[in-house]
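In response to reviewer comment 3 from the previous cycle, which asked for concrete evidence that the modeling workflow produces usable outputs, we include below a single protein chain processed end to end. The sequence was submitted unchanged, and the resulting structure tokens are shown without manual editing.
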Amino acid sequence: MTLEEIQNFKGKYPKQLWYLFLIEMWERFTFYGMRALLGLYISHLILSANYQQADPVTMAENIAKYEEKHEGEKITEGHPQYFIITSQQKEKDAAEAVAAKRYGIINAFIYMMAFIGGLFADKLFGFRRSIFWGGILMAIGTFIMAVPGSFSFYLGVSILIVGTGFFKPNISTMVGALYKDGDPRRDAGFSLFYSGINIGAFLSGLTIAFIGTAYSWSLGFSLAGICMLLGLGLFIFTQKSLGPIGLAPDPEKLSKPVAGIPRGWLFHLGTLLFIPLFFALVYYPMEFNMTGLFGTVKNIHVADGDAAQFKGSLMQDDLAVSGANIYLYDEEKNLLQTATSDATGSFQLTGINTEVAQYIVTDDTCAANKIVYAGEKNATKELTIIPGESSYILENYMVQLVDLIFLIAAIITIAFLFFEVRKATKEESKKLIAAVILIFFSVIFWSFFEQGGGSLNFFALGNVDSHGLNMTSVNNSVNALWVIIFAPLVGLLWLALAKRNKEPNTVVKFGLGFVFLGAGFLVFYLSRFLQHLKDSHHLLCSVLLIWF
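The workflow returned the following structure tokens.
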């Protein structure tokens, strides 16, 4: 079949679109299933490695509350969420913070790898070969993630990052190739294709998210791998119908042998070098102390006092710090006094034994009063009280290696795009500049959207009344359900408006997406003011959250 025969299809959709629809559906089933479990599983790994059990009363209450709302589930050590439910709250909060960071790092690498995978496909492999290679790696990675333990999990994630980078961007490009330039049916085709993505996301939310959090993390990840194999099998079976679409731009370059090995195989093996790189960066979050460049120094000057009171001032770079919380503890860590610095940074504490305060604290066994300053982000700095002297507080500014890599990658990407624009024709440059602008806003959109597997997952578990439902499953399937329902309808709307020459352009459609995105997060914010409502209002709040 020739490209012209494919693009001259009759009706609303080409038949090849349905094949790509089903292939992408299974791939997205795998990806969104993994994403639904990712943040929670990282939190589970952290809590299980350094288990700090909640006090017996709190632990019993948490277990009873969960079992009451989830009929048939018993919280034993074999339950996937046992460590999440029974750990101390401060440990859960700390684990969520780390898990959210690593979840963000993994997703960032996936999007970064999509750029690299797109280049490989465009210049070397072609879209079909890239899709097959990416699918194989995704399946392998997901099955390795199913093996319990941190090492196997992060190794599997690293393989999955590379696989997704080769699979995801290239199948979408093949959808576009089914249409001629300017074909008004293209947007409707992408809307249908996008609904296929969301069918996979919806099904994975109902199955993988539920099985992984209610029965077994390993079963959840394994199911994702099985479905990826289904998608690969379908791709192999149907790719002949795609004609020349997606073939390698220069097949001879790939078949030419080097030391008896086809060059194409060497290129594939070369892409595996990304795996240990991603593993190291995700599994070992190396940090650099950038305090000398970005840190701030505060100091507390404590004036000489008597046994009744102590006066001091909190300063930063010779400027007064007002409204800061100052706490005074004794050697038993009992709170003696608290004060808030005024407009001049001054504060006054009473009940201080100045003789004891003369001691310099070197370890916890020394008896001395201490001032604790509660700084930004609730971080606390502990100071020994030395009358008549200033104690310096250095607010450390730590930067992870991955943050520096993302910054460098962004600079390189911008430079590459600028180079491509410069060497293009005037007409092509206009299109590329418009694409770059849309890409910029797309990055913002997806950074919010991808919270679905991270902060919104934790938000759903900790702040939304489940009404007996598995909130991980609900959180990772409802959004997809709305897209499934409305995407075909919106596609038909675009077709109807196109016939009347009233269809809005791509930029307007993009803007409408941001309007609804902002409205959704506005509802999340407003929900904090509705948390005191009871009974039917709880249901109303849940409906509002689900709708947006």
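The chain is about 60% helix and 10% strand. We consider this sufficient to address the reviewer's concern, and the full set will be provided in the supplementary archive.
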